[in-house]
TrEMBL record:
<keyword id="KW-0012">Acyltransferase</keyword>
<feature type="binding site">
    <location>
        <begin position="108"/>
        <end position="110"/>
    </location>
    <ligand>
        <name>acetyl-CoA</name>
    </ligand>
</feature>
<dbReference type="Pfam" id="PF13527">
    <property type="entry name" value="Acetyltransf_9"/>
</dbReference>
<dbReference type="Pfam" id="PF13530">
    <property type="entry name" value="SCP2_2"/>
</dbReference>
<dbReference type="InterPro" id="IPR025559">
    <property type="entry name" value="Eis_dom"/>
</dbReference>
<feature type="compositionally biased region" description="Low complexity">
    <location>
        <begin position="1"/>
        <end position="16"/>
    </location>
</feature>
<protein>
    <submittedName>
        <fullName>Acetyltransferase</fullName>
    </submittedName>
</protein>
<feature type="region of interest" description="Disordered">
    <location>
        <begin position="1"/>
        <end position="30"/>
    </location>
</feature>
<feature type="binding site">
    <location>
        <begin position="116"/>
        <end position="121"/>
    </location>
    <ligand>
        <name>acetyl-CoA</name>
    </ligand>
</feature>
<dbReference type="Pfam" id="PF17668">
    <property type="entry name" value="Acetyltransf_17"/>
</dbReference>
<dbReference type="InterPro" id="IPR036527">
    <property type="entry name" value="SCP2_sterol-bd_dom_sf"/>
</dbReference>
<dbReference type="InterPro" id="IPR000182">
    <property type="entry name" value="GNAT_dom"/>
</dbReference>
<comment type="subunit">
    <text>Homohexamer; trimer of dimers.</text>
</comment>
<dbReference type="InterPro" id="IPR016181">
    <property type="entry name" value="Acyl_CoA_acyltransferase"/>
</dbReference>
<feature type="active site" description="Proton acceptor; via carboxylate">
    <location>
        <position position="435"/>
    </location>
</feature>
<feature type="binding site">
    <location>
        <begin position="144"/>
        <end position="145"/>
    </location>
    <ligand>
        <name>acetyl-CoA</name>
    </ligand>
</feature>
<dbReference type="InterPro" id="IPR022902">
    <property type="entry name" value="NAcTrfase_Eis"/>
</dbReference>
């Protein structure tokens, strides 16, 4: 048995060692994994990088619960946190309907006192090494500014459609069967489970959609008064057919009165339906809300059907914005995980300066049923960087279009058309929400 004094000596030595270790970690300015008890300072550093506007207690607690500390990084200067980065645990739908593990890169911020010294670069280095070690073939993010992430191999792969529809002038014609859909107002929180079940049914149907870690769904219900922009609290309407919930819409209404009458606006937050008539019924509902004359929507699928139901697309004031950025972390595994809408058999000469393990020649052979992709020493058919592969990965950006910009080079005649058709998609990929 150890004497009490020896025990005290050992434990104080261990304590010294532990303190030294923490001090060493804090003195190195290398990114390191976040400890749970550092979360508040880490998160404050992030909020400050985004301007320092305070969040509601509810929002903060939700983000605390959603942070996987073991997947999060911080950089410390002495005892101050100066940079943050996190990674959600998503599964991303890819063409063909498979669900691929994807690191959802998020909460990236560097203190303004430490910007432009390579801190972000060091976090991206560590994070992509980690993602590779976790066996996730793809990393994804939404960018605060499009100029930031290309240097790390990310590229815009999905786009969202914004619209401001003059519902006072634009009429909507709906498909047969829409009248069979019943709508009812519900409390958004009380019917969360029913809405999530609808969402889950739509996830495999469109590349770019996300299966999310538990708890995430509560983000869609956050409704701080400070962020309503003068509009109502969040409202929710369910669509039902034959007693089954087949869709939902969440939205707000901003009332406005002018001398000439009402000028209210409906602001769509999210709308999901499992079939065309449920979606059409929800769009018709939004178009018809009394005392409103416009409908504002953001980040909808580029090919969403409502555009073919309206009488005047010009008065819908469409705009397109970049949405999901994709980075292939393991080129072979990522390209094997999706299918190709027409047979493709090409050798890709890939350049990847930031993740050199991807560089070199890969033979991709695939069709609508599946694909194999492995190293080869055969002559290359197409030369491109990992960014072009990320852009084209979900079928939303054409390889031929990238070739037009000089970013894909065809080395075997015919290879570009073959790959461009194979990589394409019948449905536009879409990210349903930011993260
Ligand atoms: C997924 C997300 O979370 S997106 C959110 C990103 N965060 C924000 O927008 C919050 C506010 N901004 C910041 O916190 C920081 O400015 C960051 C994170 C964007 C950049 O961090 P820094 O540590 O300054 O970046 P770092 O010094 O590593 O820069 C690396 C390169 O990117 C460039 N760069 C960095 N930020 C930007 C930018 N916003 N626009 C254009 N280029 C940029 C740098 O000039 C540098 O270029 P170089 O390699 O040619 O010299």
């Amino acid at each position: 048995m150890r004497s009490e004094a020896a025990g005290r000596a050992t434990s104080s030595a261990a304590g010294r060692q532990g303190r030294r270790k923490v001090r060493d970690m804090r003195e190195s300015r290398e990114p390191r994994v976040l400890h749970r008890d550092e979360w508040d300072e880490w998160y404050d550093t992030l909020l400050r990088a985004f301007g320092g506007v305070e969040e509601s207690a509810e929002e903060r607690e939700l983000f605390r619960a959603l942070t996987s500390c073991e997947r999060s990084l911080g950089v410390w200067d002495g005892d101050r946190c100066v940079a943050t980065a996190g990674a959600y645990d998503f599964r991303l739908t890819v063409p063909g309907g498979a669900s691929v593990p994807a690191a959802g890169v998020t909460m990236v911020g560097v203190s303004a006192t430490h910007r432009r010294r390579g801190v972000l670069t060091s976090m991206m280095r560590r994070q992509l090494d980690d993602v590779r070690a976790w066996g996730e073939p793809v990393a994804i993010l939404t960018a605060s500014e499009p100029d930031i992430y290309g240097r790390f191999g990310y590229a815009a792969a999905t786009f969202g459609l914004h619209a401001e529809i003059d519902t006072g002038r634009v009429r909507l014609s709906v498909p047969a069967g829409t009248d069979d859909v019943r709508l009812r107002y519900v409390d958004p929180g009380a019917e969360l489970e029913a809405c999530e079940a609808v969402y889950a049914r739509t996830v495999p149907a469109r590349a770019g959609m996300l299966a999310r870690q538990a708890g995430w769904e509560r983000l869609g219900l956050l409704d701080p008064a400070s962020e309503r922009g003068g509009a109502s609290p969040l409202q929710c309407v369910l669509a039902e057919r034959d007693g089954e919930v087949t869709g939902y819409v969440r939205f707000r209404v901003r009332s406005e009165w002018r001398d000439s009458g009402h000028n209210g606006q409906v602001r769509l937050q999210d709308l999901t339906g499992v079939d065309p008539v449920s979606e059409a019924a929800l769009w018709r509902f939004l178009f018809g809300i009394d005392l409103t004359s416009s409908l504002k929507v953001r980040g909808r699928p580029l090919d969403e059907a409502w555009q073919h139901l309206v009488s005047d697309i010009r008065r819908c004031e469409l705009r397109v914005r970049d949405s999901l950025y994709v980075r292939l972390v393991d080129v072979g595994a990522a390209l094997e995980a999706r299918t190709y809408q027409a047979p493709v058999d090409v050798v890709l000469q890939v350049e990847d300066a930031f993740c050199p393990w991807n560089s070199g020649r890969w033979r991709l052979s695939g069709d609508a049923k599946g694909a194999v992709c492995g190293r080869t020493s055969d002559a290359a058919d197409l030369a491109l960087s990992v960014r072009e592969l990320g852009a084209a990965y979900l079928g939303g950006v054409g390889l031929a279009s990238l070739a037009g910009a000089g970013r894909v080079r065809e080395l075997r005649p015919g290879a570009l058309a073959e790959a461009a058709v194979g990589f394409g998609a019948t449905t536009a990929p879409w990210l349903p929400h930011g993260f």
